[in-house]
Specification:
The chain is mainly α and 177 residues long. 62% of the residues lie in helices and 0% in strands. The two termini are 28 Å apart.
Length: 177
């Protein structure tokens, strides 16, 4: 019985900042409604249709990396993944807003370690309070950039099926998206 499973709650124990309203952090009706809203944007055929553009983005980004001397590959790959997510999964096409949101997501999510360590969250004592305050501060820049992206999408109607478009079509506000 899938209704009895609470994967969202389990994920929030590991990643305390996962929203309980999201596909990733939600359970039961919250999970089902979030999944129904964005499911079309994540359908395999939709992602496959963007494959060539994603490849071009990766090639463009990689061509700017200086060769002949060592560099930190992990941070560059994280930024590349963030850009691909912003442009092709969220669906932010305005170059300035996409760059702003990519940088903001990087600032919000980057924590030390490989794999990255999660910040402690509520219920983790003093460090949890500090972690929560830090995350809330970090996510302000992401929220502002996402708000700009949502406003731009609302101002310019589009038939494109992506996460941002699905959220806007469902009448969701920035916080809900």
């Amino acid at each position: 019985d899938f209704g009895a499973a609470h994967a969202g709650a389990a994920r929030r124990m590991v990643l305390p900042f996962a929203s309980p309203r999201s596909v990733f952090g939600g359970d039961e009706e919250s999970h089902r409604s979030a999944r129904a809203r964005i499911g079309p944007a994540l359908a395999p055929e939709r992602i496959d249709a963007r494959g060539e553009a994603m490849t071009e983005t990766a090639a463009r980004r990689a061509s700017s990396w200086r060769l002949g001397r060592p560099f930190r590959l992990l941070s560059r790959l994280r930024t590349l993944c963030d850009e691909i997510f912003v442009r092709f999964v969220l669906g932010v096409h305005d170059g300035e807003i996409a760059a702003e949101l990519t940088a903001a997501i990087g600032q919000t999510l980057r924590t030390p370690g490989n794999p990255p360590l999660t910040l402690p969250g509520k219920g983790d004592g003093l460090m949890g309070e500090v972690g929560t305050a830090l995350f809330e501060w970090r996510k302000q820049r992401t929220a502002r950039a996402l708000s700009r992206a949502g406003e731009a999408r609302r101002a310019k109607a589009s038939d494109e099926v992506d996460v941002l478009g699905c959220g806007v079509a469902a009448g969701l506000g920035t916080e809900e998206i």
